[in-house]
Amino acid sequence: MKVLVDHTRCQGYGNCVVAEPQVFDLDNDGFVQLQRQDPPEELRAGVRDAVRACPARALDLED
To answer: Is 63's pLDDT higher than 90?
Structure first.
């Protein structure tokens, strides 16, 4: 699984960070920043939750 971010769509809601803080963070401007692009198996459920929780649809997954 690879996490994809469309930085042009991110609005800085931070739902992704709440869903999986070991993969997502916010930069100094408040926009999503990946800590891991290819998360290990034990974090993948949280990553899927983060993708679903993004109101701006800025996140996607590539299997």
So the answer is: no
For the record, the structure tokens of 22 come out as 């070991």
For residue 49, the model assigns a pLDDT of 98
CA distance 12 to 15: 8
Please report the beta strands in 1-63, taking only residues with DSSP state E, as ranges in sequence order: 2-5, 24-26, 32-34, 59-62
Cα–Cα distances in angstroms (integers) from residue 22 to residues 8, 49, in the given order: 22, 13
Distance CA 49, CA 56 (A): 14
Rounded to two decimals, the pTM is 0.92
Helix, strand, coil percent values for the chain (each to nearest 5): 30, 20, 50
Contact partners, residue 40, CB within 8 Å, separation at least 6: none
